[in-house]
């Protein structure tokens, strides 16, 4: 340093002790724990939080509605095993995000909803604060854990607890309530830094008991018609190689639940996906891996599962209370899937007997028969398209682009796409999950693109798309490689219903021949209207190659669908129809 510089430095007043505040501590706590992305909607009191997070190098994706930001956070959690973060404003913003938090919890996806809130003193005396609401109380029953922070010095601990609660054991949603005053609370920067916690081993391995493994192997070995069911817990666990080895070394046929598709390629010789009805009905021993016996598996009983008492269930799950939830589990294996599958493989040894050929041959025959029946329908190149023709085109594209991520919602659009489009790699299919909820489309698509960088194909019923359609602006703003295909059949299930009184449109139909493609054009993206599978193929391939935000309005025959898609049996219908007055 030269003399002049030296004098200037000496003349400076002694610096104030460095300070930090609530805003910075939240950001530092997230970053310290490897969280780099926030999904949210800005406003009082969290506007500066988003701004400062962006300035600190985090990716902050601003949405048009909190539900979609929340869905994005939830699926980011599923894809990465780190809790996805959703950031909302008080009361209405919080409530908009809450559906996504509850959905994440229901699906066992780790996420943290961080919401600003109004001042405790005013809220608790119900004195009518700006956006007043007792958010903590409302969130509590809808998520795994809920915390509120009143002192800046507790932010580090609160974020650590939220992360642990979200990812340990059965993953789920966590709520973190941050009242407005917290953000501007200041504290000494050094003390602040020391108050932060880097979570060590956030989701500890949960090793299954050796006798549980021995019991499971005994039951499995006794099987004449064994079956493995892979659920989205197995996809989440990222134990892909071990699961493949379990399936291949045991020789047992398997069916994937929808978001477990691709864990092994759907074209795998042991996949019984195309003979699902047969194997569920006929199997004598069923090994469930990260799949619950809820409505999606007909609760493990009834017609779907054949004669009463004809099944023995083995279940691998991290949540002990899942066992016997619907039917008796004769061999519960409680632990994390990676540890459980590793222990099973250990116990199986190298010469596990292959299942009887009578069983695997019967499955093979059924599967070939069903696939052959399907093949012709998929080749139909007519206008207007039916679901099969359109999905046949998309099936080919997904086979050629196995890294692309498929997002899928709707009724017919969902059920038929799930059956027709093969998945080739793990965690590439994201859909309506445990609730069969509409509205996950654009949120999931955005997070999938942001988190993985891979192109996303969102196959959407026209109704389903409408729930999150405004987020096409978000897709354009962040220039994400997302191609949305709207299966436009003019309505919910079908586009042909009428109001018997002749006054209004029927409850299930939309504006006829709408042009959803123009919504994407409005924001600078690419819009295409297609009427044949060939045109659809061309447009999707162009979108995937260019990685430009694209929306394809795929004109589907309004008569083609069926009410409620595959789950018509759950749809109560009145047998009393009065004549219009
Ligand atoms: P699907 O809808 O595909 O049938 P579910 O959501 O019903 O799947 O079931 C997923 C199950 O996986 C849940 O019961 C959950 O507790 C369990 N699970 C999630 N992650 C793990 C893990 N790492 N290890 C063990 N079980 C897990
Ligand atoms: C949050 C009820 C299930 S499926 C569906 C609705 C409204 C839309 C089906 O029409 P779509 O598909 O998408 O055009 P298609 O191919 O059959 O024509 N609100 C929520 N979730 C659900 N599940 C519903 C309503 C529903
Ligand atoms: Mg429709």
What does this structure look like?
With 581 residues, the protein is an alpha/beta fold. The protein has three domains: 19-195, Rossmann fold (3-Layer(aba) Sandwich); 210-362, Rossmann fold; 379-560, Rossmann fold, CATH 3.40.50.970. The chain is 40% helix and 16% strand. It is built from 23 helices and 19 strands. It has a six-stranded parallel beta sheet, with helices on both faces. Strands 15-14-16-17-19-18 form a six-stranded parallel beta sheet, with helices on both faces. Strands 10-9-11-12-13 form a five-stranded parallel beta sheet, with helices on both faces. Helix 11 (210-221) crosses helix 15. It is globular and about 90 Å long. The protein binds adenosine-5'-diphosphate, ligand TPW and magnesium ion (MG). The site of ligand TPW has 18 residues, from helix 18 and helix 20.
Please describe the topology of this protein:
Blueprint: H1 3-11, E1 19-21, H2 22-32, E2 37-40, H3 47-55, E3 59-62, H4 66-80, E4 84-88, H5 91-107, E5 111-117, H6 120-124, H7 135-139, E6 145-148, H8 155-167, E7 173-179, H9 180-184, E8 186-188, H10 189-195, H11 210-221, E9 226-230, H12 232-236, H13 240-250, E10 254-256, H14 276-282, E11 285-289, E12 312-317, E13 331-334, H15 337-348, H16 357-378, H17 387-400, E14 405-409, H18 412-420, E15 429-431, H19 441-452, E16 456-461, H20 462-468, H21 472-477, E17 482-488, H22 517-521, E18 526-530, H23 533-546, E19 550-555
Parallel strand pairs: 2-3, 2-4, 4-5, 5-7, 6-7, 9-10, 9-11, 11-12, 12-13, 14-15, 14-16, 16-17, 17-19, 18-19
Antiparallel strand pairs: 1-8
Helix pairs in contact: 2-3, 2-8, 4-5, 4-19, 11-15, 13-15, 17-18, 17-23
Bound molecules: adenosine-5'-diphosphate (ADP), ligand TPW and magnesium ion.
